[in-house]
Write a structure and sequence with these properties.
Radius of gyration: 20 Å
Number of strands: 14
Helix content: 25-40%
Strand content: 15-25%
Shape: globular
Largest sheet: 7 strands, mixed
């Protein structure tokens, strides 16, 4: 994937007293996904447990989600990774790790994030051990990243929309490097399955059918911040639906379905037939919620 990596120095905090060297952690990491990220989640968990023991309490995390259903779905994945790595979900921004999943559909959306960062700067002065991360569509804008580097040096982590599956790996870097970690990809064709997800609601869930868009409508920013269309394998979609319904989900919402065509020429209509068949398998049944722009 095309990517841009930028690093700057930030001040040290007490994490450095318990850290293993980045070289030792990276050297033992598998190369294949999702095994690589599962390995990094285990490494983060060791560091989190050590810091928790030092503080005498669990470490907490908090995700503030701005924007659309795609961001909401991504936040469930990010929270799942954080919980798997040993964090407990906090109730507000006075947490040990705060992540903003950002939106950039309008200038006002950017201003909201800058305003919240101004608040967080004061929180971090009182708690220098806390870590702050930024991800989502706003981070795909080069001018935004430059502004963050110059004016918000207290931020620990910045990444975009194409590489959220590497979140655990970035957490390890934040905990082992004395610098702001920035990794922005322009695009990718990689889809990583079988990573943890923490659903907000027990009875309903979004489900990704595809990522990105090729339409380039004049009013829409999605192709520029989410990239070109990438479709999941039908077997992975069906497997996830089976798992969700078995876990009590009764309403499924396909996430950003426009004109999805998946491998082996399986069109969305054929996939919908397979999903409909699944409804007869589960006695409790389930509904598939669609929006006006979705393929019918």
């Amino acid at each position: 994937p095309k990517r841009e990596r930028l690093n700057i120095k930030v001040y040290k905090n007490s994490w450095r007293n318990i850290r293993m060297t980045d070289k030792n952690i990276i050297a033992g990491a598998p190369t294949e996904e999702p095994a690589r990220q599962q390995y990094f989640m285990e490494q983060v968990k060791k560091l989190v447990e050590a810091e928790s023991a030092k503080k005498g309490r669990p470490l907490t995390c908090f995700i503030n989600t701005f924007g659309c259903q795609m961001n909401a779905r991504d936040s469930e994945k990010l929270l799942g990774i954080l919980k798997e790595a040993g964090y407990e979900e906090g109730t507000d921004e006075n947490s040990d790790f705060v992540l903003y999943n950002t939106c950039t559909v309008r200038e006002n959306a950017n201003l909201k994030v800058y305003g919240r960062l101004g608040y967080l700067s004061g929180v971090k002065r009182k708690n220098p051990d806390m870590m702050i991360g930024l991800c989502g569509c706003m981070m795909q804008e080069p001018l935004v990243v430059e502004k963050l580097k110059k004016s918000y040096h207290f931020v620990n982590l910045i990444f975009g929309t194409h590489n959220i599956y590497r979140f655990a790996e970035y957490l390890v870097r934040c905990m082992t490097e004395d610098r702001m970690v920035i990794d922005i990809w322009k695009d990718t064709d990689k889809i990583v399955e079988n990573l943890p997800v923490d659903r907000k609601y027990p009875f309903k869930s979004g489900i990704n059918i595809m990522f990105g868009c090729d339409n380039f409508c004049s009013y829409c920013i999605v192709p520029y911040v989410r990239g070109r269309e990438k479709s999941r394998e039908p077997k992975d979609i069906l497997r996830e639906i089976e798992s969700l319904v078995a876990d009590g989900v009764v309403a499924l919402q396909p996430a950003f379905v426009l004109c999805a065509v998946v491998e082996e020429a399986v069109e969305f209509r054929a996939l919908a037939v397979r999903i409909k068949h699944l409804r007869s398998v589960f006695p409790q049944g389930f509904d598939v919620v669609q929006h006006a722009g979705d393929v019918q």
